[in-house]
Each structure stands twice: as structure tokens, then as C-alpha cells.
Amino acid sequence: MSMRIGLLAGTVLALVLHAPAEGQNEVWGAEGRVDFSEFRIANVVPRGQPLIPVFEGWFNNPDGTRTASWGYFNLNTEELFHVPLGPDNFVEPAEFDGMQPTYFLPAPDDRGRRRRHESVFAVTVPGDYQGQVTWTLRVRGLTIESPSSFGSEAYEMLNIESATSSPVSPLMRVADSPVGRGRVGPVAGPVTVAVGESLPLELWLDLLDRERTIVDWYHHQGPGEVTFAQQESVVDATGEVELQTLATFSEPGEYMLRVTALENPSALVQHCCWTNGYLYVTVTP
């Protein structure tokens, strides 16, 4: 049975990952209150469980804008999902639609991350923006809305990347993108490659004084499968480094790759301190 779930305040995050915050302990659907107890972490299984968008928090930027960050919770250890942009995967208002993932990986093995994929995309709104930004996913007849909760103190985060005089997130350039850092990092492309051909991926980082950085590439959007020659690199260095790998694509279409540079996985749980980069790719037959 199809059920539409709207969150009264906050997101599913408070329900499936943490003790409910005040005012966030009820979820309502078309037939009344919805019980999410069956979606606890203990019930992550190989297949058959839901896919849940997770709002992680919002923060103020030095220029007066505000940024909201989302991840997702796939309660399956083997099953992944392709949910194209459109009526089953969209952000409202429409002007903020388009950066969310369409390719959803199974739950990570690391239970310290609460089996969740963190900070996969972010949306920045003007300082005078009124209202909320909402990511909606419809999978297996279950519709879940994850609103930004702008203005809620319970979900306000410190933007450490901007608030400190000693930078804590790596500077990044993807291909020919401008240099950026933080959750909203650099965006490049589109670049073009044919199905089955190898696409060189070039990444420049200034690791500053970090002694160890983990770099991961992800299939973020696109209809087929993406294979990386080296999906993860561990860099034991400081200062500027250049990294390269290759990506191949199984089907033609429009893709987006995501790359993340962080010190260790616990940084994601602590909401500090990493950089995301994005690369648009057009794959021809």
C-alpha cells in the first residue's frame, strides 16, 4: 500500500538513528500516525528494507546565506537503488532540485557510522529565504519527505570550515573546477566519454597540515554502473597533492560523480571536517 509520510518537524534522522528530539517523535501518514520502530538499525538486512532520506543539519555562511545538508539511510546490506531525478526523487522548491543522488549504495559496513551515508549533497539558500527546502524519495510505495528545518536550533550546526582561522577541510579542485572546500565543494564538467572507455579523473588537493586523508570516489547520479580503477586512496602527506584514477561507464547517459576527502569516517558522524567535489559526465554510446 502506498503511504505518504510527512514529517511534522525535523526528519527521519531523529527517529531511526537517535532518541527523538522534542517535537519530533511523531510521523503522520495518510492513515494517521506511522510507527517507525521496525526501521531500527538492528533490522538492517540484505534486502527488502526501505531507503530513507536524512536531513543532517543547517548552518550559516559568512556571506549571509544558509546551507542545509542531507545524507541517506539504506537499510539493506546488499540491495542498492537507482531512483532517477523526477517524480520519485526531487527537491522542492524546484530551483534547488538536481544535486541529490540517484544511485544509492547499500548500508556501509562500518557500524560506527550508524550504517548511514552522510553528507551526499547540500543546498544553499539566500539569507532572506523564507520556508524550507524538502527532499522527497518514493521507493516501494513509501514516500518520505525530509525538510531542511531551517531555524530549528536542534539542527543548527557550526560551520567550522568558515568559523575557524585554521582551515580544517582540504582545499579541492576537480578537473578544471574552481578551488573549493566543505560540503558544497567544487563542481566541474560536463566532460564526455564513450561507454566502455576509461575517463581520467584528476583531483588536486591542498591537505594543509592534515597528516592523513582518505579520498573516495562515488557514483552519485546516472543510469548505469560506474567502475573506478581505484575507488579509494589513503594519502599520508601534508600540503598539495595530485591524485588520478580512471572511471568506466556501462551505459550512455548523464552522470555525476562525487569525491570526498576526509581525515577519517568519524569526521562525517561529527559533521566536521571534509570536502565534497562533483563532476558531471556525459557518456555517449
Total strands:
20
Number of domains: 2
Which class of secondary structure composition applies to the elements? mainly beta
Measured distance between first and last alpha carbons: 39 Å
With strands numbered from the N-terminus, the spatial order across the biggest sheet is: 3-2-1-11-10-7
Major sheet size, sense and barrel closure: 6 strands, mixed
Kindly provide the radius of gyration, computed on alpha-carbon positions and rounded to a whole number of angstroms.
Answer: 19 Å
* Helix-residue proportion: under 10%
Q: Catalogue the unreliable spans.
A: 1-34
Provide the β-strand percentage band: 35-45%
What's the assembly state of these chains?
A: single chain
Description:
- By secondary structure, the protein is mostly beta strands.
- The chain has two domains: 3-155, no CATH class; 166-284, Immunoglobulins (Immunoglobulin-like, Sandwich).
- The chain contains three helices and 20 strands.
- It has helices at 13-16, 160-163, 266-269, and strands spanning 3-7, 27-29, 32-34, 51-60, 66-74, 81-82, 89-92, 103-104, 117-125, 134-139, 142-147, 171-174, 187-194, 199-206, 213-221, 226-228, 232-235, 240-249, 253-262, 274-284.
- The strands form five sheets. It has a six-stranded mixed sheet, with no helix packed on it.
- It is globular and about 40 Å long.
- Residues 1-34 have low confidence and may be disordered.
